[in-house]
Amino acid sequence: MPGHDMIIIKYHSEAGVRFVREQEKPDIRRLPLFRDMATANFETLMQVAYSQNFPPQLDLLRQGEPADFLHIVVEGMVELRAEWGGRETTMAVVGPISTFVLAACIKDTAYLMSARTLEKSRIVMVPAVDLRAAFRRDPDFAMAVIVDLAGSYRSMVRHAKNLKLRNSRERLAAFVLRQSALNGQAPGFVLPVEKRLLASYLGMTPENLSRTMRQLESEGLKVDGQRLIITDRAALTALAQPDPLIDGPDTELTAEELGLPRANAVG
Amino acid sequence: MPGHDMIIIKYHSEAGVRFVREQEKPDIRRLPLFRDMATANFETLMQVAYSQNFPPQLDLLRQGEPADFLHIVVEGMVELRAEWGGRETTMAVVGPISTFVLAACIKDTAYLMSARTLEKSRIVMVPAVDLRAAFRRDPDFAMAVIVDLAGSYRSMVRHAKNLKLRNSRERLAAFVLRQSALNGQAPGFVLPVEKRLLASYLGMTPENLSRTMRQLESEGLKVDGQRLIITDRAALTALAQPDPLIDGPDTELTAEELGLPRANAVG
DNA sequence: CGAACCCTTGACAGAAATCAACTAAGGTGG
DNA sequence: CCACCTTAGTTGATTTCTGTCAAGGGTTCG
Questions:
Q1: pLDDT tens figures, B19-55
Q2: Which domains does chain B have, with CATH numbers?
Q3: Which of A36, A51, A150, B210 could bridge to B106 as Cys pair (CB 3.0-4.6 Å)?
Q4: Interface probe, candidates B153, B198, B251, B254, chain A, greatest A C-beta count within 10 A
């Protein structure tokens, strides 16, 4: 069991493995996924779960490995990325509080994506076996799993639509407007991730993103390091043609539905 | 309720609306989605469902519309496509027997994709309301929904990985090898769909697909109209670098996991 | 028979990746 | 505190990939 080996190694090397702290349980409990579950079942899951701090840039799991644990990001930020033939791409970035690799755990098969921390992160890991037992036993939890998976699926459909229907300039413009919308139409915000990572998520190279940002400076965007400011919303909107069927509805302010974490407003 | 309006119109214009036929129930029942459901619940669903024949090229539903029905393709072939800003792309093609727009029905929200028949098709439509009631009541059905959604999600993740990590030549080569693998490593097969549709699914223009096929003729592929024959598997494999984490495991021979229907072997 | 429509091919334009060089910022260790 | 190193980001030059436009061949279907 590679998963358990890993745990033990980490335990000795960093003394990071603990039971889930009482103080973090309520936050996890508030997740839509666990909210409606019977208390006894939730407690059982928490008792068999591990909780651990990880340093930045650490690989949590690799694509192709058997799915042993459902992961919950309690603190920090985790990149989900895919690799093939020496290339790699960012599929999503998940922040607190949300889960990842749920589908792989359910199907009891290999992860399709790798995960690594972007910053110091606290991760709760629920053994896949116990997870599967839980929703077989608890109908309310099963319902929550259904809703979660349906949302994840739709999120990935939107990601694919975005890639297939828009070019990179349009994708960037749409991303900017989306982040603004999530901050109540704020005129500016700070990028939630490095530009290179944003580029990868949007399906382009860092060089291309850099140039595309420069292009957009004549179309209503001002770039100041990590800070982006919308100077002409109409122009950007004309370019991006925002569409809730791709970008997600503005009412959905949850991070779960967004491929990248929500930015912080500025200006 | 646009959905019911549509039904009534169709009823009068084509006399196509019927209760689900007794003879087609067993086929539907055999679907992983319905297989484990309690018989009484299955019968209830079938009693409230519509069953209808559609001519080719007919729009079954449009993206953005509220999800009123889970659709089951009993016969024929249906394209799921996405539109934006005057462009459109094929996201998947589903053949018998499988379902589509399950996620939208669960979330009780708008379809993310449009659907139209590619050939004369027989479609069973289960009202979303009854569907949701069913898996709230039937834990075994809920489990099946979970497994189905998890599979759909992973399928879309693979589609996105394919788009982001491979160029169009690699995608085509991988597609060819995948179809061959699904037919027991058959050297040749007939394309299950028109080339223009394959092009759209693979994220390229018809012209580009045409040229790429020509390119591959010097890399182990022979193209004869709708018939493709592998002449040098090693060369194609070197190009495509098939990967179960993108192309799907060879053991999964179900159509549900494939973005396009399975081809028929020849030669 | 004509009208679509699919497919192909050619010529061209545009988009995006690659390669290379350079700057700036942040962290490390002396 | 500073020299050094690493890394993100930018910019330019170039190549490669892909889309667009246009035209023609072949097929199907009314």
A1: 899 999 999 999 999 999 999 999 999 999 999 999 9
A2: 4-159 (2.60.120.10), 166-266 (1.10.10.10)
A3: A150
A4: B153
